[in-house]
Amino acid sequence: MMLTLKRLWLCFRESRPAVQMIVLARFGAGVVLAGGASRPAGRIAVCALAWLCGTVSIYVFNGLTDRPEDVANGSHRPLARGALPVGFATAVTALTAGVAVAGALWAGRWPALVMAGYMAVGYAYSGPPSPLKKHCAGASGAVTLMGVATYVFGSLAAGGRPDAALIPFATAMALWMGAVGGVAKDLSDVAGDRAAGRRTWPLALGEKRTRVLVSLSACAIATGFLWSGRHFAPLLAAPAAALLCGALATCVACVKAPAAASRARRRLPYRSFMWTQYACHAALAGGCIGVLH
């Protein structure tokens, strides 16, 4: 029993807890900005669990397919270091996928369709015959679509009409995922990606140009979000300010992450991207609480 629990925990570790937390934050933003406060808490909880299980399934599957690259990159993830058996991880991938689909079907036709699309893109990102992750545009596009799907699923779980703030917020955050995070994450994994034959942004453009691309994308998205917040949804003023600060921090991180630096330093732009997401969602939550009071 203890061994099973330990392996389940390792599966969760493989699915990147930091990613699962921000996925739930995106889902929560979709709920709140679609009037979720008026819906039964049980329905929202079931939908949240279903989406979490779907995301865990996708990320553990990604870990299974990424093992050779992760070993080459010196990753400490459970599968890469041999702490998590492949067979157990495969079983958890299937089980969590089943729970995700069942929960979405229970929620209704549209949630089920969004879940199906989300899972399809998630598996296409990593799985055969031609994984989207092998090509820079495919990887960024998949990440963006999965971000949009999370906000949409949250709004469907709430069953309400989306607030005026939902579309610009979800659009900015999804673009932030695809054009910043989806590019920055590869800066620390060049060796493994090259060995696996991937065509990631650093391998296609070179690492220096990729850092410039990340910086320009971050600033462009933050500027556009700031403008849309001022003109369409005052509630987004704080999240927009957080995104602008995060964009500047990401630019600094790109400067401090040259190709010759350690893997930890080359990962700074991605960490800045992640912390910025947390800050934006926290700012949105604070604004919503302020409105309620």
UniProtKB/TrEMBL annotation:
Record-linked Pfam families: UbiA
GO-annotated molecular function: transferase activity, transferring alkyl or aryl (other than methyl) groups
Subcellular location: Membrane
Membrane as UniProt keyword: yes
Membrane topology reported for the UniProt record: Multi-pass membrane protein
TM spans (from-to): 21-37, 43-61, 82-102, 137-158, 164-184, 235-255
Keyword Transmembrane helix belongs to the record: yes
Keywords: Membrane, Transmembrane, Transmembrane helix
A cellular component term, taken from the record's GO annotations: membrane
Listed name of the protein: UbiA family prenyltransferase
